[in-house]
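User: quick one - fold this with flavin-adenine dinucleotide bound?
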Amino acid sequence: MKPDCDVIIVGAGMAGMTAALWANRLGLSSIVLEAAAEPGGQLAGIQDKLIDFPGFSENGSDLAKTLYDQVLRGNSKIQLATPALKLDPAACVIESNSGAVRGRAIVISTGLRRRRIPRLESLSESFVFYTSQPRESFSGDRLLILGGGDGAVENALLLARQWQKISLVHRSALRARPALLAQLSQHSNVETILNSTLENIVGNRVEIQTPAGARDLVVDRILVKIGFEADSSLIATLGYDSGTFARVSAEQELLYPDGKVVPQVWVAGDVCTRMDPSLVVAAGQACIALRSIERQLRP
Ligand SMILES: Cc1cc2nc3c(=O)[nH]c(=O)nc-3n(C[C@H](O)[C@H](O)[C@H](O)COP(=O)(O)OP(=O)(O)OC[C@H]3O[C@@H](n4cnc5c(N)ncnc54)[C@H](O)[C@@H]3O)c2cc1C
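Assistant: Sure. Structure tokens for the protein plus flavin-adenine dinucleotide:
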């Protein structure tokens, strides 16, 4: 069967879009599959001005737009709202919700996803939510935030003006930046309940196990902010546990968990970067991957 393109790229974040630019630069055709309706991944959500991306100092969503335009001007096809569902490395095929795509090489750049709490999955989405929502969408006065990193504390500070009572529950000490923690003490309506775990939820009554014993909280909404994990669902069939970062060679080739190379599959960006994920690292890895692909396709 004739391939649909040289390189299939999964994900249109910084890594995936840079991979598309480099495919174009090296004369390779590419198809980018992006699950979301908009391109950009995490970059599209950065509203602050970038201070560490060489040569660009506007905010992240501006860079996402610029990058997307740049990719569209090249020889790549980007299919939005098209999640890749299954990887077949031997056939070099990706199955998506709009059918199978066959390439000569695959780049996986699926980034990160929010960590979720499996036991809360059965609860209504209007009771448990993972991203901040406008206050108008909710009734009630009492908000429970689960988490203790920057995301959880930032949200507690932001929402403290809107909710009458916020309980911030975390299983250990807070890990947020000192500057954020300093502001927390200025909000008398935010209670921190540390070294504590969620035990049970019945209706809107949440049972927390604290160092001083069990405690019941009555809450109107639960916001979960417990960080991110690698979006490795596509490589689960290769023996990777859910949320595990992909292992790669120095050329960004995907490795099986035991260290053997997975033929025809490369990886770039946060999905393989446990330490120090960043825009420049994601872009650099995409460049390395595409150069390696070119060497293999045109020895
Ligand atoms: C709030 C915030 C601020 C940040 N600030 C900075 C900063 O100032 N400087 C810096 O260097 N870094 C910053 N970062 C980190 C930086 O944004 C990331 O390191 C970088 O964007 C990672 O890019 P990526 O392409 O690897 O992954 P992502 O941006 O996560 O993109 C992955 C893409 O893959 C798609 N996808 C996932 N699964 C599938 C699938 N099965 N099929 C198809 N598509 C799929 C996703 O929808 C997503 O669009 C920040 C991150 C955040 C969240």
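One thing worth noting: The first strand starts at residue 7 and ends at 10.
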